[in-house]
Amino acid sequence: MTTFAVDLGFGEESILRGLTEANIVCRGGSGRVYHVTFTNRLNRATGVVAVKQIRTAEKLDGKLEREFESEASILGNVRHNNIVKLLCCLSGAKAKLLVYDYMDNGSLDKWLHGDALATGGHPMAARARSARRAPLDWSTRLKVVVGATQGLCYMHHECVPAIVHRDVKTSNILLDSVFRAKIADFGLARMLAQAGAPETISVVAGSFGYMAKITFFLFDFGPYRLQERDC
Q: Which of 56, 68, 182, 219 lies deepest, with the highest CB count within 10 Å?
């Protein structure tokens, strides 16, 4: 197990014990997401994490392998109040696991559109309340927009090398217990070339070519901001 914190209060055994059918909260083409509770060995308190299991196979799909490596390498070195925290990862012959902080209020899209209209909440929003939610008030929406913007600005201007997310959307903005925005899902993210090198970034469906960071920012963030305004 590779950890990205001094002492998490739990070990590999606690995570593996929680990977049961009863704890599955999402199934997808790339794997499953589990809601796992554990007893913190430091203070005996009960904690909760979200565990994303990359699909198990004799040979992991190349795309999924790259997404796992991208998420682990980027989030393992990033610490910001508006970026979801990767606590640890486990990589073995039969399984690859990513363990994150649990987000109590789920994904932003479900708060904007309601569960019945949301286009698929983020799997990290494990077991958030499934009943139809009341619309967010404008002060909370502003808080979410400012938080997401601060997370993106940190990635673009304070990380060395800079990081481009490339898939910012409301289902990838998670909300904690106080509605603090957390950017999630870095499987498509890439680190930009160092200063002086061409910023060439390819994506799964073609290539954006030589595009400046601000172009990516507008491309990703613009539709998200429009959804905030129009809902």
A: 182
